[in-house]
Amino acid sequence: MRGRVFRYAGMLVALALSACTPEKPGEADIGDARADGARTADAAQDVGVDAGTADDAMPEATSADLTNRARHLLEAIAKSSPDLGLDMLFPRDGYIGARDAPDPAKLWDVKLKPAYEAQVKRATKRTKGMDRAVFVSFELGRSVSRIVPKKKEWKTPLWRVKRSSITFTIDGKAHRMEIAELVAWRGNWYLAKLR
Fold first, then answer.
1. Which three-class secondary structure state does DSSP give residue 11?
2. What SS3 state is found at 8?
């Protein structure tokens, strides 16, 4: 009896490991994970359930995605081209769902996005030689707090962090740019206010 239990346990472990092990050693199959996630989301949509990350989920302090989007923001500033860093701006769909306003879509279109564009262009002019900026790192601020929902502000208790920073070099000299405010939505940090 004991031998049979060990044999079944061994088969279960081998089965579990074979399902998790990537085809090439040391390489995760991200494509399959994304496909599985897409299938899960599709199945959830079929039954009317949102299987994605909760809108108010607390993001990690660091991630490859956040670092990459911060790099895009610096590139947008260096080239005075706000569109290059739009992936760092709070997404329009999320803003519409989280903002308490009569017309949050219009508010994003006429206030948030234009303010971001103007802040990027001002930041370009603030540092001499910004067109030669080279991204070094991104650091999330230390004062993470929960947003208390208020009428005519946020209707969802999202997370907020102030004073994050991007470190970059210009001709080998280190510089630091502070980001006024990031807000979390669906497990990612997004720009709410640059300066």
1. helix
2. helix
- Count of C-beta atoms within a 10 Å radius of residue 124: 18
Backbone angles phi, psi at 177, to 5 degrees: -115, 125
Tokens of 63: 């991630």
DSSP classification of residue 59: P
- Taken as a whole, the chain contains a residue count of 195
Half-sphere exposure of 191 (CA within 13 A, CB side): 29
Prediction pTM value: 0.69
DSSP character for 99?
B
* 99-145 pLDDT per residue, tens: 999 899 999 999 999 999 999 999 988 888 899 999 999 999 988 99
Q: Where are the domains of the chain?
A: 2-46, 64-193
